[in-house]
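User: Can you predict the 3D structure for this chain?
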Amino acid sequence: MENWHTLEPFSPQEALTSARAAARADVTQRTIINWSEAYGLGRMIAGRWRISRVALEMFLEGNQMALACYLAGDREDPVVVGYFAKLNVPINFDRSPHKGGGRVWS
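Assistant: Here is the predicted structure, written as structure tokens:
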């Protein structure tokens, strides 16, 4: 497994269940989990798969450069910021799991 920074820091607004992600992508849950393992679209949290809405959208659109930036933990790249804005997901620049905040798009 790669050193991906998917859903880091964790944001409930960014996370999808594997069922919701599968519905969004029009594939099975098993496919979403396979994609998550292979391409870093999600990770296990408390024993359940959570999929990044942002990473999934980048993957579905074939934007490999944006996905690479996202997986590397870059939340300030303009293209990555654009995906967060498009999906109305707040960006939390503080990587501490105990802090709130983040930029909210309207």
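Residues 29-39 form the longest helix (11 residues). The chain has a mean pLDDT of 89.
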